[in-house]
Design a protein that fits this description.
The protein has one helix and ten strands. The protein is mainly β. Strands 2-10-9-4-5-6 form a six-stranded mixed beta sheet, with no helix packed on it. It has a four-stranded antiparallel beta sheet with strand order 1-3-8-7. The mean pLDDT is 93.
């Protein structure tokens, strides 16, 4: 599975970032999801999107984050607005609507740090 997440960085509270994740074509034909893992916490689902564009969000990010996809570019995005320190985490993208299996290789992800 080839997924590359990018776009993380340091941002002040209230700021915005856009994450990107590019996948190979066979993977991208399915639903795609964004997860995050904060220090000392379990990895959690942030947002997901079906191949047709239906979306679902964690309650903690509703109204602030938007997931989208560009099928021509095999890329899924996570627009993050009104960022809070609690959003600080490593963000990962993964294929599918359901949580990957325990043996799934998550890769390095992209670090988002929200701090003044």
């Amino acid at each position: 599975v080839q997924l590359q997440a990018s776009g993380g960085g340091l941002v002040q509270p209230g700021g915005s970032l856009r994450l990107s994740c590019t996948a190979s074509g066979s993977i991208f034909n399915n639903a795609m999801s964004w997860y995050r893992q904060a220090p000392g916490k379990q990895r959690e689902l942030v947002a997901r999107i079906t191949s047709g564009g239906s979306t679902n969000y964690a309650d903690s990010v509703k109204g602030r984050f938007t997931i989208s996809r560009d099928n021509a570019k095999n890329t899924v995005y996570l627009q993050m607005n009104s960022l809070k320190p609690g959003d600080t985490a490593v963000y990962y993208c993964a294929p599918g609507w359901s949580r990957p299996s325990p043996t799934y290789y998550w890769g390095q992800g992209t670090l988002v740090t929200v701090s003044s």
